[in-house]
Amino acid sequence: MSGLLVAGTTSDAGKSLVVTGLCRALARRGLRVAPYKAQNMSNNSMVVTGPDGAGAEIGRAQWTQALAARAVPEVAMNPVLLKPGGERRSHVVVMGRPGGTVSSRDWDQGRRHLAEAAHAAYADLADRFEVVVAEGAGSPAEVNLRAGDFVNMGLARRFGLPTVVVGDIDRGGVLAAFVGTRELLDEADRALLAGWVVNKFRGDPALLRPGLDVLEARTSLPVHGVLPWRPDVWLDSEDALDLEGRTATQRGRRVVVVRFPRISNFTDVDALALEPDLDVVFASSPRDLGDADLVVLPGTRATLEDLAWLRSRGLDRAVRDHAAAGRPVLGICGGCQVLGRVVRDRHGVEGPAGAVVEGLGLLDLETDFSEEKALRRHEPAGYEVHHGRVRGSLSAGPVTGTMVHGSLEDDDHRARYLAAALGVVSRVSFPAARERRLDLLGDLVEEHLDVDALLGLALSGGGSA
């Protein structure tokens, strides 16, 4: 077994970026490399083909990392996926399939079987690939959660993984965060630490060097590199934190995406954001829809709750007014269900059993929630992941609905939709843009990180502890 754990001082420190770049850099060297994240918490997912040939669900980030590694995405790369479904409760996906729920109250006891599944998946990948690059979650210094941890140092201890820690210097205090991370770990965990990576540095690296010297002297661990801040680095987004950086660019026709509180698979609009003639923004106020050329209702992990939220803010009226003016509305998955006449939850999939709620009535369709989850891939692009089954028409005048995520990533489909809805000519290839960004990440990692040292750590690690 050969492997490396990439942990972080915080969530969103740059772990996913480093893992993705490393996967591309190592794949370029002819290595069979696999990404891995024991447990991901995200409502952005992808459907892959499971071991039995049926559809299965993993985190979007691990799917993207598999593309970077030039490997076929599979469920073992993200064996546990937690999808927040409400306050302090998450829906669990185990090896690609629904696995019940877990709450903050049973965080320890309710996850022991998840650790077993995650460890078995890592061992399976390590048997089939030359190198496994594992991504941690949150911070390994969350010692209050250490007893049940199987994602950070719990994983590292189980498989003897050398661990590098990434910190975001743009947030400030990164040197203290590195030292604090080391100091909070117990002796056995600390022994697996193998160095540091600084992310998002702006300015002259010579000005940072004295601080890195102190860090290395204080911790007796090397800094494996400093990644510069780059405004053009883009990854398929993993969680709602990424929405904070999405602002208007004033490029052309205005596309307003309603930011549901429980938004999911909002990567559906990434392809629109790359179009040079579109200005894509996220909004949660009715006044933000006033000058929209296109309104998008994206996916949601809790359709009924987000429909109630829509009404509570007057966004339902704003969407209806937009459609009444003949301007296009696009609903995707949960957003499509919201546009229909009625949503029924007889089995209590999302809340109390027997709930029947009126939709916005802009599409002549009905939604019934089923206990069985639909997981299907579409070619050449797109996938379905939902409990709601819709019946009726998916279009009415300027209003269109679809249950297929990712369909806009298909260049031909997106071009047809934009021409019909907005009179806009598509001028980019989304798959080509994604591949360029993965290559850019590979270039950044090779230029600014000591890839040879990291590979050496990976090849020296991976023994069962």
Short description:
This protein is α/β, with parallel strands linked by helices and 465 residues long. 32% of the residues lie in helices and 28% in strands.
Helix content: 25-40%
CATH architecture of the largest domain: 3-Layer(aba) Sandwich
Shape: globular
What count of helical segments does DSSP give? 14
Q: Determine the N-to-C terminus distance.
A: 12 Å
How many separate structural domains? 2
Looking at how many chains there are and whether they match, the oligomeric state comes to single chain
CATH topology of the largest domain: Rossmann fold
CATH class of the largest domain: Alpha Beta
Query: By helix and strand content, what is the structural category?
Result: alpha/beta
Would you tell me the overall average pLDDT? Answer: 92
Strand percentage lies at 25-35%
Q: Sheet with the most strands?
A: 6 strands, parallel
Strand ordering within the main sheet: 2-9-1-10-11-12
Number of strands: 24
Which blocks of ≥5 consecutive residues have pLDDT under 50?
239-248
Describe this entry's structure for a reader.
It is a single chain. This protein has a six-stranded parallel β-sheet, with helices on both faces. Strands 15-13-16-18-24-23 form a six-stranded mixed β-sheet. The N and C termini lie close together (12 Å). A hairpin with a 2-residue loop joins strand 23 (395-396) and strand 24. It contains 14 helices and 24 strands. Helix 1 packs parallel to helix 2, helix 1 packs across helix 13 (430-448) and helix 5 (174-184) runs parallel beside helix 7 (205-219). The chain is globular and about 65 Å long. The chain folds into two domains: 3-234 and 436-460, Rossmann fold (3-Layer(aba) Sandwich), CATH 3.40.50; 243-422, Class I glutamine amidotransferase (GATase) domain (Rossmann fold), CATH 3.40.50. The chain is α/β, with parallel strands linked by helices and 465 residues long. It has helices at residues 15-28, 60-68, 112-128, 153-159, 174-184, 187-190, 205-219, 270-273, 303-312, 315-324, 334-339, 411-422, 430-448, 451-460, and strands at 3-8, 33-36, 39-41, 45-49, 55-59, 80-86, 89-94, 97-103, 131-135, 163-168, 193-201, 223-228, 253-258, 263-264, 278-283, 294-297, 299-300, 329-332, 342-345, 355-358, 365-377, 383-392, 395-396, 399-402.
